[in-house]
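Figure 2 data, in text form.
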Amino acid sequence: MNSLLKECALDEMCAYLPNQSQTTHYKIIEQCSTEQCAALIERGWRRFGNMFFRPICQECSACESIKIDVANFSFTKSQRRILKKAAHFSSRMQTPSMTQEHLQLFKKYHDYMEQKRQWENHGVSANGYYASFVHGYNDFGYEILYYDNTKLIGVDLIDILPEGISSIYFYYDPDYTSYSLGTYTILKQLELAQERQLSWIYLGYYVEACQSLNYKNRYKPYLTLQGRPSEYNHPLWVLLDT
């Protein structure tokens, strides 16, 4: 049974654009059902642990919820080259977990991104990692672990929902940047969705001016969510006019 523990809106610094504030709506839901998670994701929410959130800024609409149309997606030649180049990697899908390997790789990735893109780096604690990426997976949360032989090189956190895959977070070993692992994992999600006859890959927020998020418009065709529908309103997604 779903249990809404807390709901609030907070004003904070924008996570995507510099020198801007952001108003974020939060819900803390314990034992969230697959159906409720799917309804929230379809309405533009994101999930970390048992926390769901979405921006509700009154004067800014830079954050666009985006989802890939799986049935009509075709792999480009360059995307197939990425898949081929990384074909020797192995993977395992399981419910989310936390090991010392996870924490070390998470730290290595964020240290790298701090230098490459000036990300804020607050370090990693076991409690913080567990709360964000392990707790709250219920019946729908998974991690896909990627290996080079026995070495963990990437962790892709996803929700598998009745109509699609929600891409939560991916981190990887910076020593493998030549393999375009960020692109590779999205392509593997698309393969998984096609195998399971799922309709969508939910990529979260696309922000054109945010370098860390503007890669998401490469996966076409995709749809964008109009407005911020409530749980009682039907969400309207509009196909990008390509």
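Caption note: Residues 77-160+169-180 form one domain.
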